Amino acid sequence: KWFGFDKSNYEIINGDSRKITLEECRVIVTEPSFGEILKRMPDKEKANDIINGFEKLIISVFNNLKENVSEKIVFTAPFISTIKGRVSCNIKNILKNTGLKLANIRNINFPIEEFRKGQIIAREIFVLEKS
To answer: Are 80 and 51 in contact (CB under 8 A)?
Structure first.
């Protein structure tokens, strides 16, 4: 019933993506944990700690799943507001440690930023593929 999609075209898996076994698929879409919920704007050091934890998680997830994905991996990453500006993940580090690359989709530059005014943790959307 999820958005009216035909169930034969997707499967929702709820589990630890660092450990699950995935059948061969064309695409995975994931919104991993962004860490703790923040009630106020963190300093840059705290934001970087959150980002570093996220990068370790996502690298582990992608290294577990990438061999069974034939086309694209779509994911969101935290985009954190601090007094000194926004902090985002180091996509070059993620690509280097997974062997993936940013997808080449006509007229789309990644990341796609998604946030509302005043939002502390927003998201960036990336689409990756095998090198």
So the answer is: yes
For residue range 118-129, what is the model confidence (pLDDT) as tens digits? 889 999 999 999
Three-state DSSP at 34 gives coil
With CA atoms as reference, report the closest residue to 81 among 54, 109, 52, 117.
117
Put simply, whether the predicted model's pTM sits higher than 0.85 gets the answer yes
In the chain, at which residue ranges do the beta strands (DSSP E only) sit?
Answer: 25-30, 69-82, 85-88, 100-102, 112-114, 121-130
pLDDT value of residue 3: 66
Structure tokens, 110: 């990644």
**Strand extents, DSSP E, 32-118:** 69-82, 85-88, 100-102, 112-114
Strand, helix or coil for residue 58 = helix
For the chain, give percent helix, strand, coil, nearest 5. Answer: 30, 30, 40
Sequence length of the chain is 131
Q: Please determine, for residue 31, whether its predicted confidence score (pLDDT) is greater than 90.
A: no
Rounded Cα distance between 118 and 131, Å, is: 37
